[in-house]
Amino acid sequence: MSLAQSAVEGVFGLTEPVLSVRNLTTSFKVEDQWRSVVKGISFDIAPKETVAIVGESGSGKSVTSLSIMRLLPKNASRIEGSVKLGGRELLTLPDEQMRQVRGNEISMIFQEPMTSLNPIFPIGKQIAEALTVHRDISRAEARAEVIRLLEKVRIPNAPNRYDEFPHQFSGGMRQRVMIAMALASKPKLLIADEPTTALDVTIQGEILDLIKTLQDEEGMSVLFITHDMGVVAEVADRTIVMYRGEAVETGPTEQIFHRGQHPYTRALLSAVPRLGSMGSRELPLRFPSIDIGTGEQFELEDVADTVAKTKTPILDVRDLTTRFDIHSGLFGRKTGAVHAVEKVSFQVHEGETLALVGESGCGKSTTGRSVTRLITPTSGEVTIDGYNVMQLDKTTLRSMRRSIQMVFQDPFASLNPRMSIGSAVMEPYIEHRLGTKAQARAKAADLLQKVGLSPDMMRRFPHEFSGGQRQRIAIARALMLDPKVIVADEAVSALDVSIKAQVCNLLLDLQQSLKLAYLFISHDMAVVERVSHRVAVMYLGEIVEIGPRAAVFDNPQHPYTRKLMAAVPIPDPSRRGIKRNMAIDEIKSPIRPVGYVPPLREYREISPGHLVQVA
Fold first, then answer.
1. Burial 206-235 (b: 16+ CB within 10 A, else e)
2. What is the C-alpha to C-alpha distance for residues 483 and 348, in angstroms, rounded to an integer?
3. Cβ neighbour number for residue 516 with a 10 Å cutoff
4. 351 phi-psi bin (left φ>0, alpha ψ -120 to 50, beta other)
5. Shortest CA distance to 494 belongs to which of 119, 111, 191?
6. CB 404 within 8 A of CB 339
């Protein structure tokens, strides 16, 4: 009997489960051979219960949900075992009957709402379709029901938004539309596959609150799939930990968190940064390292103080403003502008990390690109290593970029898929004519070793590496020109929790050995607390609070800073059932009419270096 089966039978002796999965095995055909990616997993979900499947990319958790829904291609996959919904076997149901089950008795929310919604149809019609397929109702009745559902998922002004298209909604509101669609037929079971991973932390908090509320109101069961242990702690009654296709540990969430037995469970938990765990520490702190084979944890040495005590910063930004004109009408006249960055000022010293934090659309990435002149700012002053960035011609701009390099969020998109990683890492060195090909190869090999990869890998291509390895390659490439400043634009947000910890540790190690300055752009407050010396909080293109990391996190003054911190999921099962009751507002638009003059902002000093914008 498997570990999962024994736990399941101990929990469910009396209540008939809504979903019963036994010995589920899913295989894919690879080069005429069947390879199992889900291996004999078993679990039950009781009425009104939330079960979380947690694991990293490649663990098989999403394939498990797709197998339950029978959404895998028949010719390339094979599903074995038993999946029963209310006692009825799903794996042997005829296709037509299975179509009636999907969206009716079982509904699914996918990770990326924009790819799940049809961009050419209004959202109201898309939700109405989910109703009319399964129920015999008129168009007017369907519209009334859709508006009720939109109000239920807390979308403001629902009647007027019925005819709007997906692109007119923010990411969080699109996810609410997906939840409304999933709830249309009052399913017995809701499968939520990474529903908050792509969302900002405040939007994530709203969606988690919403799922809890709707579960209470509708009495449905939830299968929640995620790699975020903080989210698991807040929503799940029971947790299944998956590793390489197997359920390695299962049990009540509180037991998994406080008395987890499997080394992989402990590895996942140790890699989760806990907001507020830094106390009064001034310096960044490495993530602990853990041996997945034994579960032994190694607390790494503290990060040494690398901040240069000189008065001259390596990066000095004064009143940086970046706007994008909007043209419309027959003659393309200017009708307004996106005020993406508005009079932003900060300094970064050698060996220091300044974190820019905020939600999508706040202007933090535009700030990073404006500083490097990948986007031409509208006004302001930017000085990097003695270069006046705003006044550089093409030749000197090219020289300046040796001093500042950028690491992007998606390493796969920033690496040429047709170029070997050796060539990709060597390219900046060769393009800037800093030496011969042999010298470039030697330096690339040395840097790959520094970022934890083998020089033997130089002949491989990007698709042959994992996400974390690709990000290491991108970091090695950024270091080829010996920069003094690195702009890390959401460089760890797309990574699994343990890989995120490894890459953060790597960045801290490189900072210590090379005295690098980082502009660390992120929306993950828990990671920012761990790696930064100072923090700047951005909202609608402006810095609303800036100061030493300990001062900002221990004594947040601006309401937006407090809202960001309150939304961070905390890996503590005792918080399950707690709702944040956050205000449901879409982020305000940064679009301003022609002739708009922004108000002059004043800042109040709370403590040395800790400034907050006066409302």
1. bbbbbbbebbeeeebbbbbbbbbbbbbbbb
2. 14
3. 24
4. left
5. 111
6. no
Judged against a pLDDT cut of 90, whether residue 371 lies above it is answered with yes
Bridge-based pairing of strands 485-489 and 517-522 is parallel
**pLDDT (tens digit, 9 = 90+) per residue, 29-63?**
888 889 999 999 999 999 999 999 998 877 889 89
The proportion of the chain whose per-residue pLDDT surpasses 90, expressed as a percent, equals: 47
CB 392 within 8 A of CB 398: no
pLDDT at 160: 85
DSSP state of 586: P
- If you compute the radius of gyration of the chain from its CA atoms, what whole number of angstroms results? 26
How far is the CA of 233 from the CAs of 211, 357, 387, in angstroms?
14, 24, 48
Residue 333 phi, psi (nearest 5): -70, 150
* C-alpha to C-alpha distance for 423 and 419, rounded to whole angstroms: 6
Q: Which of 130-139, 161-170, 356-365, 547-556 holds the top average pLDDT? A: 547-556
Reply yes or no on whether the pLDDT at 169 is more than 50.
yes
Q: What are phi and psi of 552, to 5 degrees?
A: -70, -40
List the chain domain ranges. Answer: 3-105+187-270, 115-184, 315-403+483-613, 414-482
CA distances from 212 to 217, 237, 372 (A): 9, 12, 43
CATH no., domain 3-105+187-270: 3.40.50.300
Spatial neighbors of 340 by CB under 8 A, at least 6 apart, are 322, 323, 324, 363, 366, 541, 590
Place of tokens 């059932």: 577
Distance linking the first and last C-alpha atoms of the chain: 63
Q: What angle do CA 615, 555, 576 make, to 5 degrees?
A: 105
Res 477 pLDDT > 90: yes
Same-fold call for 3-105+187-270 versus 315-403+483-613 = yes
Q: What is the pLDDT of residue 290?
A: 60
Reduce the DSSP state of residue 551 to 3 states and report it: helix
Question: Does residue 295 or residue 24 have the better pLDDT?
Answer: 24
How far is the C-alpha of 217 from the C-alpha of 396, rounded, in Å?
Answer: 63
Helix (H, G, I), strand (E, B) or coil at 102: strand
Q: Which is it for strands 50-54 and 221-226: parallel, antiparallel or unpaired?
A: parallel
Average pLDDT (488-496) is: 82
Task: Give the pair of three-digit tokens for residue 180.
Answer: 């409304």
Q: Give the CATH architecture of domain 315-403+483-613.
A: 3-Layer(aba) Sandwich (3.40)
